[in-house]
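User: I'm putting together a teaching handout on how multi-component assemblies are represented. Below are the sequence lines for each component of a complex, exactly as they appear in our records. Could you produce the 3D structure of the whole assembly as structure tokens, so the students can see both representations side by side? Please keep the chain order the same as the input.
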Amino acid sequence: MSVLVFAEGSEGQIKNSSLEAVSYAALLAEKLNGKAVATVIGSYTNEALSAIGKAGVTKVLHVADEKLAKPMAMPYASVLAEIAQRENAEVVLLPRSSLCDSIAGRLAKKLDASIATGVTELPDISSGFRVKKSIYTGKAYAWIELTSKVKILTLAKNAVAPMQKDSAISVEQLQISVPDGDMAARITQTEKATGDILLTEARIVVSGGRGLKGPENWHLVTELAKALGAATGCSKPVSDMNWRPHHEHVGQTGVKVSPDLYIAIGISGAIQHLAGVNTSKYIVVINNDADAPFFKAADYGIVGDAFQVVPKLIEAAKKLK
Amino acid sequence: MKILVCISCVPDTTSKISFTDNNTKFNSSGIQYIIGPYDEYALSRAIELKEAHGGTVTVIHVGLADNEPIIRKALAIGADDAIRINAHPHDAWFVANEIAAVAASENYDLILTGRESIDFNGGLVHSMLGELLNLPSLSPVMKLDINGKMALVAREIEGGKEYIEIALPFVAGCQEPIAEWKIPNMRGIMSAKTKPLKVVEPSVHKINTQTLSYELPPAKGACKFIDPSTPEQLIELLKTEAKVL
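Assistant: Of course. Below is the structure of the complete assembly, with chains in the same order as your input.
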């Protein structure tokens, strides 16, 4: 019996959310008296793959097929299904991402598996196999029993802390052919901000709202983010008005984030925005309106003019280094 | 072009969530139900595509008779007809199997869903449908144009987007800004009352999860306010007290 984890990469490196999933796999395998196996698809250096060993799993299956260099849900689901069967996997773990969400549903059918998405902690296996998952966009949790022999879990951010081990990996190269039908979608172009910290991966997020009055003032957000090593986000009105690109929109219908620290500048905190950030560990709100609803969800607050307050914060943040 | 749009019935995004019966039942008292916001983007785009290319838009919903008002709303927005599968939407696997059973013989050119429902946030129905119907599936789709038998799609990825060419038919899980939501007009509301709404009984009955109980997150402590004239104190507190810097 094994626990199989899919480690997703970005720009040749294994993503932090995947390293959390790797550590989750190691802990779960121990609980179930099985072994943990990680799979990567695409081109990675051994150095990049060594992060998987540090996160707690030493057996790595590497599918380095040139055809699969670009992440695509359909062929990746076929590859993972074949590996899961080969490894006799009873649990398949994926980080939560736009790629893995699309893989997960197809994989559930291929493996005839029970599935839960957005799982927030290790399962309770004292009676059956029960997981806690986030529902109502972070407003509540549900305990779900997975009744099939094979289980698939996609993990919410911070489901476990990534381990820091000093173990070497053994990498096995695999060739797996995928059906032609899986290649029906042809990616013609990818637009991606390179070098930026990904919003869903970031430990710290700095977001701006309408209170910043216009895109020309966004240097307040980006400079503070840079000083803190943070990703940048925005509220829905800001992306609707095209002040910022849609992939930065944080909220109910945008990106959901769970960083250690979320700093909201000039965002009043409509319930739809809160739904995207309410699983953050600490929330800081800076707003000139003391009645802004966001303060009720905040750990730290400053009632004041962002144009006065934020430059001072940037100065103080720069001194941290 | 023949389009199927799958819609969910969910609590309004401003709803306060609570549970009853020792945290085993959702408390629906005072809750207003709506078409899933992502599903409504899918429906709006389907209607725009129909207006541009001709064809029909059918909405399908797995739910009990109580949910018919949201199906009528979808018809008022511009769908031509509707199918309600008369069952509680037990989990994503159940919903996808029931919809696939209906869709299998209909040869839709496009099957649209929202990227996820906003109650259980599974985000699974589109890819399960794709696998069950042996069709490609893409999600989250933020742009969808049709050119003959081909579709040009933009899919959101972390930190950007990718553009995809794909032949019809396929399944797409949609999100903003794929279309503007449409407000039903009086003519739409009147005609919705007489548009066909077919009720079918579930035929597959597949489930592989059980929801046991619910929990609310722990209440937040009080917000600690920092004097706006000395914001550097915030950085200090984040470093020494919260220990996140």
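A couple of points students might notice: Residues 204-318 of chain A form a domain with the Rossmann fold fold (CATH 3.40.50.1220). Chain A has a mean pLDDT of 94.
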